[in-house]
């Protein structure tokens, strides 16, 4: 997980031999740099390094094995016996140094100057030294090494760690990079295996797209970037039913379509070593960008191919088809707009605000960060121009003057004329936990609305979501011949809020939700041995628990008068069980069985001790996927895109839809541009709307014409998207 060192390494004699060159550096310029050191000076350094070796090794008289013969045309070296990890005997190979590494890999890469001319075999290989190689081993220098061939966790290399048998030769000049190309019918992994250890360049024909922008990699605790061939990756359960052959195939294909762009030396906080122009306003990298002119050597570690860059890029080297939109296209469409917005733990309790029921701070730790976070959110909301905004992850510290929701509302209204100002929806006192809170979590959902456009129809209602409480030993499982008893489980999820609005005397009920996350496990995960692993169905942990919540929400909106919009962070992708329950699931037409969680309570009363089987969904319509197809997204995780944020409407609401937009201001951006400075070093932040959160807002434009004119003009008022949705769903135009 690291890459070639991206700073020039000085020779012991004080002459700099560049390791990094500009992407536009020509071969002629490279040769000129090499010639700046005389052969005599190089010989002096070489002689000094050889004197340090325990037994000076000479390549003279040795039988050479070409690098491409060591690599072979398979996934492992033909010189390593089957079932073994190293060759029986040592081999001697000669090549030109292309890169040296000191951290991620300790050694250097060499490459045959001519190769065998076959695309199926690599002409490059890594030489494992075990520590920093001598200074004379620099790009452009010819070396000869002798050691055993090893398959180090899938990475073919020559190991000279125990005996540094290396003969440092003359400077012959740096080798040009070979363009990386993926052949028709092969995977990216297969293409990378063919060039493992080689110096390559990503050109336009490589067609490599950013699938995870430069950001923190939780698996190895460092910042890096991930590319995929042709297009960014989509979560399998965003586009296919869990455990279907199509979902399994897509997940497998995604695993074979990743190239990590890493650095040998861990990148400093907030710095992209190969892109010095990285910044929040003009030097950003977005998912979907095509990367060109990047040169590097191909390594392999932690089950991933990694490109270790050797040059620097400029903003022009990122070919962008979908750039930032300062204002969503939908901002002026329809009679009203409704949006969801996950505000990424907007907390103010650390800075004079009221305390939440848990006393936890999940948001900013510095007041300046909180103010930046608020400014970015406000700028995004102003640009959205939505008349109703469903909030997730706002601190649950009441509705008073010192609450987070009031703090955010005040900042938002300060940027707007009075006629566009918002108010928040407040729960009735009887629905508040401890007379103050929206449930008992540190965060909650909320609602903003414009009184000049919509009015409240009655009071807001709380939809209590299930909790899971299972005592130790509630269930058991057989682990081989051993019966194991379950540990205790106490799991919670945020309650939902429901409010009916009137628009031109017509009812719209909005339900804003934030269901249990996929991270920590529930009882069902333990039963299936998934407490420490990703479930086989790829739906994440606590899926049945989210299904229980979906069932309760579906029951709450069933039979409501007027239009219904269920929105927010469901923490489930479009084809996953909770969405199926809320939309079009029918057990009679599929083999997939969907169950709720066991040992659940609802409002303190036993709900379901045993999980129940869902027979039929609640018939809501996934507006985004109906309008744009399954490949929509509002979130990115581990390099895969998908929708966790949804807008689900009943059939009458679907007729009112003018447009739906996932405004991509967050999901495709680097999280280094978010408000927190904890891991970003000296990187400058921006007040723009981009990276104001980690979820994209989902915006729906709706038409609500005046009732008095609706009878006369209804025939021409139905939006194009509404007509499309009706056709797709087999619905007739609503009569009035």
Describe what this molecule looks like in 3D.
With 736 residues, this protein is α+β, with helices and mostly antiparallel strands. It has 3 domains: 9-176, OB fold (Dihydrolipoamide Acetyltransferase, E2P) (Beta Barrel), CATH 2.40.50.200; 188-319; 336-729, Endonuclease/exonuclease/phosphatase (Deoxyribonuclease I, Chain A, 4-Layer Sandwich). The chain is 18% helix and 28% strand. It has 15 helices and 41 strands. Strands 10-11-17-18-15-13-12 form a 7-stranded mixed sheet, with helices on one face. Strands 25, 26, 31, 32, 33, 36 and 39 form a 7-stranded mixed sheet that branches. 51% of the residues are buried.
CATH class of the largest domain: Alpha Beta
Task: List segments where confidence is low: pLDDT < 50 over at least 5 consecutive residues.
Answer: 1-38, 709-717, 729-736
Specify Rg, calculated over alpha carbons: 30 Å
| CATH homologous superfamily descriptor of the largest domain | Endonuclease/exonuclease/phosphatase
Number of domains: 3
Helix content: 10-25%
Largest sheet: 7 strands, mixed
CATH architecture label name of the largest domain: 4-Layer Sandwich
Number of strands: 41
Beta-strand content: 25-35%
Distance between the termini: 63 Å
């Amino acid at each position: 997980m690291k890459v070639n060192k991206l700073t020039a390494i000085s020779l012991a004699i004080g002459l700099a031999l560049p390791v990094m060159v500009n992407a536009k550096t020509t071969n002629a310029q490279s040769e000129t740099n090499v010639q700046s050191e005389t052969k005599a000076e190089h010989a002096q350094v070489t002689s000094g390094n050889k004197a340090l070796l325990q037994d000076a090794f000479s390549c003279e008289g040795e039988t050479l094995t070409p690098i491409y013969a060591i690599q072979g045309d398979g996934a492992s070296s033909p010189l390593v016996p089957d079932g073994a990890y190293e060759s029986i005997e040592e081999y001697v190979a000669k090549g030109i140094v292309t890169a040296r590494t000191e951290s991620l890999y300790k050694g250097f890469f060499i490459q045959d100057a001519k190769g065998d001319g076959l695309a199926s075999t690599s002409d490059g290989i890594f030489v494992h030294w075990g520590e920093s190689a001598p200074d004379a081993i620099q790009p452009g220098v010819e070396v000869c090494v002798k050691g055993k061939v090893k398959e180090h966790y899938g990475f073919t290399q020559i190991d000279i760690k125990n005996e540094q048998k290396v003969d440092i030769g003359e400077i012959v000049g740096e080798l040009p990079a070979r363009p990386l190309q993926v052949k028709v019918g092969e995977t990216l992994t297969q293409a990378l295996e063919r060039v493992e250890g080689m110096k390559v360049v990503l050109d336009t024909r490589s067609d490599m797209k950013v699938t995870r922008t430069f950001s923190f990699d939780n698996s190895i605790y460092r910042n890096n970037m991930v590319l995929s061939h042709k297009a960014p990756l989509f979560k399998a359960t965003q586009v296919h039913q869990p455990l279907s052959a199509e979902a399994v195939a897509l997940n497998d294909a995604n695993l074979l379509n990743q190239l990590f762009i890493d650095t040998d030396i861990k990148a400093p906080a907030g710095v992209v070593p190969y892109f010095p122009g990285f910044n929040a306003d003009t030097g950003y990298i977005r998912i979907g960008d095509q990367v060109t002119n990047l040169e590097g050597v191909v390594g392999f570690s932690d089950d991933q191919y990694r490109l270790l860059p050797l040059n620097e890029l400029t903003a022009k080297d990122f070919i962008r088809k979908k750039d930032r939109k300062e204002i969503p296209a939908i901002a002026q469409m329809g009679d009203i707009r409704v949006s969801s917005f996950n505000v990424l733990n907007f907390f103010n309790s650390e800075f004079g605000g009221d305390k939440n029921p848990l006393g936890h701070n999940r948001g900013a730790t510095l007041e300046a960060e909180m103010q930046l976070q608020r400014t970015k959110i406000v700028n995004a909301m102003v640009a959205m121009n939505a008349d109703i905004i469903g909030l997730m992850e706002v601190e649950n510290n009441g509705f008073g003057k010192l609450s987070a929701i009031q703090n955010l509302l005040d900042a938002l209204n300060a940027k707007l004329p009075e006629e566009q100002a918002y108010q928040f929806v407040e729960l009735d006192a009887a629905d508040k936990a401890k007379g103050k809170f929206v449930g008992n979590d540190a965060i909650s959902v909320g609602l903003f609305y414009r009184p000049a456009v919509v009015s409240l129809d009655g009071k807001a209602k709380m939809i209590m979501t299930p909790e899971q409480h299972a005592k130790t030993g509630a269930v058991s499982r057989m682990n081989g011949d051993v019966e194991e008893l379950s540990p205790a489980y106490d799991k919670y999820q945020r309650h939902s809020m429901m409010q009916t609005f009137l628009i031109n005397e017509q009812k719209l009920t909005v339900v804003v939700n934030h269901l249990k996350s996929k991270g920590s496990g529930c009882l069902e995960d333990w039963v299936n041995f998934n407490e420490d692993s990703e479930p086989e169905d790829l739906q994440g942990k606590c899926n049945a628990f989210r299904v229980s919540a979906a069932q309760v929400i579906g029951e709450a909106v069933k039979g409501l008068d007027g239009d219904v919009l269920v929105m927010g962070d469901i923490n489930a992708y479009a084809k996953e069980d909770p969405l199926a329950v809320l939309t079009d699931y029918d057990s009679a037409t599929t083999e997939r069985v969907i169950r709720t969680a066991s040992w659940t309570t609802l409002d303190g009363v036993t709900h379901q001790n045993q999980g129940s089987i869902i027979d039929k969904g609640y018939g809501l319509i996934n507006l985004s996927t109906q309008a744009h197809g399954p490949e929509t997204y509002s979130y990115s995780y581990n390099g895969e895109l998908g929708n966790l944020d949804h807008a689900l409407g009943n059939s009458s609401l679907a007729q009112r839809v003018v447009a739906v937009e996932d405004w991509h201001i967050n999901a495709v951006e680097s999280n280094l541009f978010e408000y927190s400075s904890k891991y970003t070093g000296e990187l400058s932040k921006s007040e723009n709307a981009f990276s104001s959160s980690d979820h994209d807002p989902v915006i729906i434009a709706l038409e609500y014409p005046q009732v008095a004119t609706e009878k006369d003009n209804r025939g021409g008022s139905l939006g194009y998207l509404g007509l499309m949705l009706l056709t797709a769903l087999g619905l007739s135009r609503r009569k009035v």
